[in-house]
Write a structure and sequence with these properties.
By secondary structure, the chain is α/β, with parallel strands linked by helices. Helix content is 36%, strand content 14%. Strands 3-2-1-4-5-6-7-8-9-10 form a 10-stranded mixed beta sheet, with helices on one face.
């Protein structure tokens, strides 16, 4: 059983109205039944029908749930996740007893408070309108529910976006986490532009981990890829972390696209020069396998840095989308035929019912 994320991970992403998109499998959200919208009561959503369906397939080792997925880049943190879930005990117990309706809350919460962003990256699949019109923001009652219900019970908390430090909800959640005194693993997925403004000393002192998107290795490439002249601010923040002896908190992601392909090798050398850094180099998926040859060459060249530097191959070209679309009806029928078990274990305290 290779992936048990549906037993411990909840991802919450806003739609255009501020409702919460909950993904049974965020990495394969294209499949019918793998996503649903919640207007209130996230606690009940944790045991909703799509998530129980995903757990049933995981227990049956049904690999069709992974058809068309693009999850390889996210497997970078899987070894740590596996250790965490094994030591916690809830997930092994649920798997052993084949529980679909869980009596514990998510151990990993990945929250996208907003899709707003201060960059305009050429490859961003959220779309250009999401970044500025203010529609894609989680409603305030969800922000409060994270604090009251989920964050106190989770072991890992991941803030994503958009740019989490560019949104009021993201800053609010991070401020609350830093002030709460909770002993959690906090991961901030950020472009790094606003780290200095938020307070690098505070983040370093609390051990907040970063995954910073590097969009180029010099000012011109960065500006061409990000649509904003923020390279100096990002690298200034990196130098500040290093001066504080907090370089071990930094991880970096470099997405290869037409605009920055010439800087991909420089990213490898950047990780090599700083032994405390971690990095992922992967390609913009809608170009298919266009840059796979380069990534393969760099993977061989920097193989001595594994696992600190990893390489991933993404592909969402027309042929892949076509095959996925042909599979959709079958998956939908399987989902509609699924009869969720409601008596395997008790429901979560205070949770309502979500169909």
């Amino acid at each position: 059983m290779s992936c048990l994320k549906c037993f411990y991970l909840m991802q919450v992403i806003p739609d255009s109205c501020g409702n919460a998109n909950i993904y049974a499998c965020h990495f394969n959200r294209y499949l019918p039944g793998n996503a649903f919208v919640v207007k209130k009561d996230l606690a009940a959503a944790w045991n909703a029908r799509p998530l129980q369906f995903q757990r049933q397939m995981a227990l049956n080792n049904d690999q069709s749930r992974c058809f068309g997925a693009h999850c390889s880049v996210h497997l970078f943190q899987m070894p740590d996740e596996n250790k965490m879930t094994a030591s916690n005990g809830c997930v092994p117990r649920a798997v052993q007893h084949r529980q679909l309706k869980l009596d514990y809350f998510p151990l990993v919460m990945e929250v996208y408070p907003s899709l707003e962003c201060n960059n305009r990256c050429v490859f961003c699949f959220h779309g250009k309108d999401d970044a500025s019109d203010g529609k894609f923001r989680l409603r305030q009652h969800f922000i409060q529910e994270f604090k009251d219900v989920f964050f106190t019970r989770a072991e890992w908390i991941i803030l994503n976006g958009g740019e989490p430090l560019f949104s009021q909800g993201g800053r609010d959640l991070l401020e609350w986490l830093l002030a709460s005194g909770l002993k959690k693993r906090i991961i901030l997925k950020t472009n790094g532009v606003l780290l200095e403004q938020f307070g690098i000393e505070r983040l370093a002192a609390k051990g907040v981990e970063m995954q910073i998107s590097l969009l180029g290795m010099n000012r011109d490439t960065y500006r061409k890829t990000a649509g904003a002249d923020n390279f100096g601010r990002v690298m200034g923040a990196v130098e500040k972390f290093l001066s504080l002896g907090a370089g071990h908190l930094l991880g970096f992601s470099f997405i290869v696209c037409d605009e920055n392909v010439q800087d991909a090798e420089a990213f490898g050398y950047f990780i090599e020069r700083h032994p405390q850094f971690r990095g992922i180099l992967w390609n913009e998926m809608f170009h298919g396998a266009k840059h796979w040859g380069l990534i393969s060459q760099l993977q061989k060249k920097f193989s001595h840095l594994y696992p600190r530097l990893q390489f991933h191959y993404m592909d969402n070209n027309f042929r892949r989308r076509l095959w996925r679309a042909r599979y959709w009806p079958l998956h939908w029928l399987k989902y509609r035929a699924f009869n969720p078990q409601t008596c395997v274990t008790c429901a979560l305290p205070g949770a309502g019912n979500v169909a």
